[in-house]
Write a structure and sequence with these properties.
Strand 8, helix 8 and strand 9 form a beta-alpha-beta unit. The chain is α/β, with parallel strands linked by helices. The protein has a seven-stranded mixed beta sheet with strand order 4-10-9-8-7-5-6, with helices on both faces. The chain folds into two domains: 133 residues, Aspartate Aminotransferase, domain 1; 255 residues, Aspartate Aminotransferase, domain 2 (3-Layer(aba) Sandwich). The mean pLDDT is 94. The longest helix has 21 residues.
Length: 406
Amino acid sequence: MSLQHDNIRKEFPILQREVNGRPLVYLDNAATTQKPRAVMERLRIYYEQENSNIHRGAHYLSQQATVAYEKARETVKGFINAGSPQEVIFTRGTTEAINLVANSFCKKFVMPGDEVLISAMEHHSNIVPWQIACQEREAFLKVIPMNEAGELDMEGCRDLLNKKTKIVAVTHVSNALGTVNPVREIIDLAHEKSIPVLIDGAQATPHFPVDVQALDCDFYCFSGHKVYGPMGVGVLYGKEEWLNSMPPYQGGGEMIREVSFSKTTYSELPFKFEAGTPNVADVLGMETALLFIKGLGQQQIAAYEDDLLNYAISQLGALDKIRFVGTAGQRAGVVSFVFDDIHPYDTGTILDKLGIAVRTGHHCAQPIMDFFKIPGTVRASLGLYNTRQEIDLLVHGLARVREMFA
């Protein structure tokens, strides 16, 4: 379970800095993770030695960059165990990946009166694109309910699946609650009725291994900056049969085979969904981050973070007047809580003065906050470089908050 944290933390330069005169305690990993030296070095090497547009050039730099870019696609394929590299689409992140599917899939397969099913614990990125698509297609958005522990009502899910349901889109891990959803069970229920399923994996891929073939999901997406890689890059996995049947999301260069003023034919996968000049450098940076994670061992990361999460829950639970928001049996990476008599923003502001970075607010999940009838929570989210000592500093900081508001 040990990840030799002294050595790991040295790989993340930002963890060596101070904030407000104190050592940085970074517990905002669900928002974005910090980057190891290897990722930053990969970006430098690309721009210093390989910078060129890919797929179109006969010259050496273009060929070199193209080979590196397509090798990164193979790395992503292995990271999530996709069936082929053609099933890996590079995007700007999870949000764009969901928008791509909501736009292209619904344009082809959702008709007036049809239904799209999401869950009550979705990030706005997995709500708003489906709302827009449903409005355009005159369809209905249905919601799987959840209980007070922050767990999905699976009987409710079963009842909502019907012949009008055209697609299900649910999060693997809630960014606001940390709940690990039973996505394989949801996929099985949907597939019994031949309904495809999209899984938002932005909060899952940093914490434990993901095997899209074992899950049998139809679409899976994640973001580079959540897995210790650069911002502005991510992945959409989709089964070839679905991707081949969907129209392009955007038009332009790269995604075409032939263009005339009367007709355009589209390129094969994955290029059909990758219009325009790609974000080559950040794709290579994301690949480096994935290799970094694989090198540490995903099972070891999962075991370490699970132990750290349980330690955080036990230590925080001893504080006066604290209430956890989300107490699911299976959680990953997140502890979300409130003090009954202190606004989350006030708590976060005081912690910041102590050098402790947490997130406060609704976490782009306002329906969850409405469900619990609160304005927001304090969210401490964990990464592979966090330690028990940092949890102790968080608890000490929260005790100071309590003293100030006593």
